[in-house]
Amino acid sequence: MSLDGKLALVTGSGRGIGRAIALKLASQGVDIIVNFFRHRDSAEQTAKDIESLGVKAEVIRANVGDPAKIDEMFDMISNKFGRLDILISNAASGVGRPVVDIDVKAWEWTMDINARALLLCAQRAAKLMEGRGGKIVSISSLGSRFVLPNYTVVGVSKAALEALTRYLAIELAPQNICVNTVAASAVETEALKFYFKEGLVKDNRQVTPAGRMVIPEDVANIVAFLCSEEAFMIRGQTIIVDGGTSVGLFALAGK
Amino acid sequence: MTVEDQVRDIVAKITRVDKSIITRQSTFKEIKADSLDVVQALVAVEETFGIEIPDEEAQKFQNFGDFVSYVESRVAQEEKV
Known about the structure:
The complex is a heterodimer of chains A (about 260) and B (about 80). Chain A is α/β, with parallel strands linked by helices. Chain A contains 8 helices and 7 strands; from the N terminus they run βαβαβαβαβαβααβα. The longest helix of chain A is centred in the middle third of the chain and has 25 residues, at about 105-130. In chain B, α1 packs antiparallel against α2 (about 35-50).
């Protein structure tokens, strides 16, 4: 499953799931563009760790919620590399509030970063994949289809992301670009600590049939598979990585 | 316009409060800035002054005065370079 010599952009790869994906791809020979927005130190650490795996890393700051910044980032990629093989649209943000407290600002902030960024990044990435094909994988969450407390805006943005994935998969298929998304349940990351603190997520080890929480590497493994030629016939799908939580919901409801 | 005035204008616009109530002692809570307001204020200030404010630094700000002092010191550094 070697991806030797490929070039990937992983948005939001300073920490958490994005970092794990970047390292997993790097371990398979992929050069990585590490995008970050708020945590430069983490991004530079990720880049160092990538380089220690013997591939190249480039750090670039951009708020993917801002179309102009997405353009600047892709201009840089275009000028410096002139190509892209893999786009991982992972960066995410969100505002945890009850439905009645969601204002336009919270809605737009979340939708712009979580959903619109995939559209804008995919448009630019597709141009850089012209004539060579490519892979686009985004990161969704179970909140796209199940209701979690105070998760409305993020859940809706992830539902949009999954729908967009299907459209991209069909419309980019003639260019030999495979598009899919990976939806995880609560993953043990820095972001999750925040959700715990805010009371938005509870420790769900008891409701995970696999017996432990999902870790970033679980998601990264599936993303790397979707970036491989073995996954060529998987298109427009949302692959769930949750240790069985979602299919076990009814069985667990009585516990 | 001083750095402090510019930062105050940005924060007032984002939190939609009257800028006259924002003093150096005001906490973000007092001016009803939620976490999204704070991030948006940081981003707007970064773009205005061409600086980068890592979250690790921003988390240390206890009040508006800390935010202004940090921006002032960064702007001064930029001018030296």
